[in-house]
Amino acid sequence: MEIKIDSNGLWYHGSDRLFDTLREGSTITQWRELAEAFSHKPSRLSYDDSGSISHNGSENGLLYVIDEPLEIGTDIYRHPNTTMDKNAEFLTKRPLRVRLIQRLGE
């Protein structure tokens, strides 16, 4: 599956914890549904070529959006050890402000 990155697009992070700053080394994505799935803390996650995600997570989740400008290469970089398609996961190089946009599964 091809995942295109929009340099002006939103970046998401899914978690089961409340915070306002994402730590360095955290995973972010422009694929909202992927961040939503990870917010449920699955031990198993997969997706098909059409982008349909399956997982076994059951925790209530929180969906965040990165709330400050960022630049690929300077602030974030492609996850070097991901098993997912190119551009699915990026890692943060520094702490980033986030804003909670949705509570999931409550």
TL;DR?
With 106 residues, this protein is mostly beta strands. 8% of the residues lie in helices and 33% in strands. It starts with 11 loop residues before the first strand and ends with a strand.
Could you describe the 3D structure shown?
It is a single chain. The chain is mostly beta strands. The chain is 8% helix and 33% strand. The protein contains one helix and nine strands, in the order βββαββββββ. The strands form three sheets. Strands 1-6-9-2 form a four-stranded antiparallel beta sheet. It has a three-stranded antiparallel beta sheet with strand order 3-8-7, with no helix packed on it. Strands 4-5 form a two-stranded antiparallel ribbon. The radius of gyration is 13 Å and the shape is globular. 26% of the residues are buried.
Main traits of this protein?
mainly beta, 9 strands, globular
Multimeric status of the protein? single chain
| Spatial order of the strands forming the largest sheet | 1-6-9-2
Q: Give the N-to-C terminal Cα separation.
A: 31 Å
What is the global morphology? globular
- The stretches of 5 or more residues where confidence is low (pLDDT under 50) are none
Would you count the extended β strands for me? 9
- Number of continuous helical runs: 1
What's the order of the H and E elements? EEEHEEEEEE
